[in-house]
Amino acid sequence: MPNNAATAAARLSVAPMMDWTDRHCRVLHRQLSSHTLLYTEMVTSAALVRGGARHLLAYSSEEHPVALQLGGSEPEELADAARMGADAGYAEINLNVGCPSDRVQSGAFGAVLMEDPARVARCVAAMRQAVQVDVTVKCRIGVDDQTPEEILPEFLAQIVGAGCTRVAIHARKAWLQGLSPKENRDIPPLDYALVMRMKELFPDLHISVNGGITSLAQAQRFLDAGLDGVMIGRAAYHDPAGILAGADPVIFGRGDAATAEEAVQAMLPYIDAHIAAGGRLGQITRHMLGLFTGRPGARAWRRMLSEGAHRPGADSMLVREALAQVTRHGDADPAQAVG
Known about the structure:
Blueprint: H1 4-9, E1 12-14, H2 23-32, E2 37-44, H3 45-49, E3 66-71, H4 75-87, E4 92-97, H5 102-106, H6 117-130, E5 134-140, H7 148-161, E6 166-170, H8 192-201, E7 206-210, H9 216-224, E8 229-232, H10 234-238, H11 240-244, H12 247-252, H13 260-276, H14 282-285, H15 298-308, H16 316-331
Parallel strand pairs: 1-2, 1-8, 2-3, 3-4, 4-5, 5-6, 6-7, 7-8
């Protein structure tokens, strides 16, 4: 049964990013946009099913709509993990078929699965049978010596046949040998035109494009051209206000634009609760460093949080003081302020 709320939210989404899109990052992003679909970091099915790591499913109710991304290649195990995710309340279960890291390859999942679409289809079918929420796939256009124009249509046909109704396509080929994961984010050329052709071939498949998208204006152009959604990764993390603060009115046509200042104020009670529960300030503020990117006072904001968040006793007062620095610079003559 498709999740209409998740499908509507997938018009714009923040990509799942290891070590970045944790629960604190997602709470911050939600202060900037009420409607954008948020994804967890990749969680392996083995960790959940065999390792009993249910704490990896923890999230705050305010994060909704939020999707769980799973990594794995065993259909039965993925079905069990998907069931756990659905029981935890996630609006969507997404299968990672795009990560090129050595660690993921050694586990026989991630981008290497582009070479075995039949297995991916079996995984999708097992997950679809196990849960009522959407089961989706995030993939590449191909890997290594594959010809994307040939293999991508066959890959999509297989997963659609297995019951996948939404896919996010990173418009770069992944090189599993010879390039690092970091290089795989930049070196292989983007092929947006191929993703657009996939929409023509699969008109009923909800397709989001991912890779190299750095602004809401660019995202809107893809939507205007006929794609169903846009997934933004690094730009949304490093400049969250620049990407997400205007997303609700611009992309979804609902609500008002947020501000970075409002997001900071909204995070203060969350920070206080986290610290009261034994957490550390830096676990949250590391995701907030880019909030004022390009604005006067941004440098002072970053410096105060970077240097102070890990000191003993650091709490939300440091965030308030850093925000005051931004406000002070913002009130100054822009020609004199240094951001």
